[in-house]
Inverse folding.
């Protein structure tokens, strides 16, 4: 049996994930790895580890010849990029959980890894404890991968569960998500969908070889979702969940977006509650597979960091197979989406933008419509993100080619207007 490489680790950050890592490493005797130093920002804070472990001087880690792995689990994306890029340039294998930093710097991080021939692993950055990146990277061939759809943010799923199942208010649910260590230190990142779209951007490179900046993807969060939306969802037998999707269309191109969705009980995602995440992967011959696990929190996230550290000990690195050994897929906005939109004032809804409106409910306090709109119209305009308007994708929201006459006839039939 080959001896695994001894790993001497320098850790940046001792927050929720850093402290979790310290704890899980102490309980993983089989791994030949020790933390030599932890770099922190605030030396005054009381920490549950020996004082001599800590420093505020990053060069003590980055210039230590004995340290061969840098683990970066800090909260500040700019500082994180600085640390990670310096570590890679110094030839140190690097592990990170900073999804915002990774998503926003994917092109640079890809070229730094190639240029300096250094492994950079970040399993914890998407769906925390679920090993989805490594599975997408290693197992699913680009040609066979039909779609991924997932609940990839624990805090928003926790909040939706608490509001709609337990009837507690948004602000109380958010506070609980913060106290439990699920939420970002700026919780707007969770609530507005930014954290989840960052994760979608990371998953896209490992599933389809698509390198895209998160800001270029269509996304929204849960801030505008109302109790009345959940009631309509329930009438239709659905739940509201924030779902990230990447789907290969019939023309071979891929569409990717993050939107609240009406999720049917037949979907595995329907059962995903609280801070859990779930990802359904659909491939040509095996149909659907479902990955499920804790998507936030100290030890679940630390377990993914630990698994990356362990993978480094046998020389594992991402090869970005879909990007480098296949022709990467191309993103497209040329499709239609079927969406539910609720609003308090009809005048704020550009009805003429819709190809077809198949349901319209005019309520005293809140109204809604269900209609079909071109994807690009949502990309280009922001009216649907404004306060007072909530947009939720229908379960089978993607319409690739629209035949308006057929759709109109079917809608009229459904409405009982023609036979
Ligand atoms: N704030 C993130 C979430 C943490 O709630 O999913 C894990 O990435």
């Amino acid at each position: 049996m080959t001896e695994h490489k001894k790993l001497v680790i320098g850790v940046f950050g001792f927050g929720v994930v850093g402290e979790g890592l310290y704890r899980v490493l102490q309980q993983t005797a089989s791994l030949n790895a020790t933390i030599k130093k932890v770099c922190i920002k605030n030396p005054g804070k009381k920490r549950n580890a020996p004082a001599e472990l800590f420093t505020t001087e990053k060069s003590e880690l980055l210039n230590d010849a004995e340290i061969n792995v840098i683990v970066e689990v800090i909260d500040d994306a700019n500082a994180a990029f600085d640390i990670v890029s310096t570590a890679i340039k110094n030839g140190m294998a690097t592990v990170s959980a900073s999804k915002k930093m990774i998503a926003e710097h994917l092109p640079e991080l890809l070229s730094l890894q190639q240029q300096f021939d250094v492994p950079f692993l970040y399993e914890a950055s998407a769906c925390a404890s679920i090993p989805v990146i490594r599975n997408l990277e290693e197992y699913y061939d680009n040609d066979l991968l039909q779609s991924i759809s997932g609940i990839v943010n624990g805090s928003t799923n926790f909040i939706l569960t608490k509001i709609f199942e337990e009837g507690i208010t948004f602000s109380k649910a958010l506070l609980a998500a913060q106290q439990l260590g699920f939420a970002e230190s700026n919780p707007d990142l969770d609530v507005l969908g930014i954290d989840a779209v960052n994760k979608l951007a990371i998953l896209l490179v490992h599933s389809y070889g698509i390198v895209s900046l998160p800001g270029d993807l269509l996304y929204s969060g849960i801030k505008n979702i109302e109790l009345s939306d959940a009631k309509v969802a329930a009438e239709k037998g659905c739940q509201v969940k924030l779902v990230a999707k990447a789907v290969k269309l019939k023309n071979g191109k891929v569409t990717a977006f993050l939107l609240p969705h009406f999720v049917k009980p037949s979907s595995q995602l329907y059962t995903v509650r609280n801070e859990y995440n779930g990802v359904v992967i659909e491939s040509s011959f095996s149909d659907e597979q479902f990955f499920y696990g804790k998507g936030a929190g100290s030890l679940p996230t630390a377990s993914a960091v630990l698994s990356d550290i362990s993978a480094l000990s046998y020389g594992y690195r991402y090869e970005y197979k879909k990007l480098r050994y296949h022709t990467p897929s191309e993103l497209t906005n040329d499709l239609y989406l079927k969406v539910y939109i609720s609003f308090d004032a009809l005048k704020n809804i550009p009805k003429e933008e819709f190809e077809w409106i198949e349901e319209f409910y005019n309520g005293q306090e809140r109204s809604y419509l269900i209609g079909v709109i071109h994807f690009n119209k949502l990309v280009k305009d922001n009216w649907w993100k404004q306060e007072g308007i909530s947009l939720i994708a229908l379960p089978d929201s993607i319409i690739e080619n629209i035949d308006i006459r057929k759709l109109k006839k079917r809608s009229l039939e459904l409405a009982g207007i023609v036979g």
Observations:
- The mean pLDDT is 94.
- The domain at 132-293+319-324 is CATH 3.30.360.10 (Dihydrodipicolinate Reductase; domain 2).
- The chain is about 35% helix and 25% strand.
